[in-house]
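Quick one: structure tokens for this chain, please?
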Amino acid sequence: MIFGEEDSQPQHPAQGPTQVRVDLSGLETVYANAFALANSAEEVTIYLGVNSALPGVKQPVLKVSHRIVLIPANAKRLVLALQQAVKNYEERFGPIELPPPPKPGGPAGGIP
């Protein structure tokens, strides 16, 4: 599976896997430290942004910069790929510690 492409599985197993060329010429890198998810029966949407809260600011602004829309099958493929990436990371560098969940009524830490 390459980038969730439906055609990445071979049509005829005897011929071997389909090769897909990846064009990175228009690649842009963005930083995101906050995200939110939304979904419907037809799609899963990921909103990415940056939380640049300053100390003492009661209502920080979360700037949403990108939206990724996936069909549910590709969202599931992404989940599986991310699980494998986290597993590989933790095997190499040790466990990733998460902070405790926010208390009810406190800041959510995601994108509203």
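The chain has a mean pLDDT of 85.
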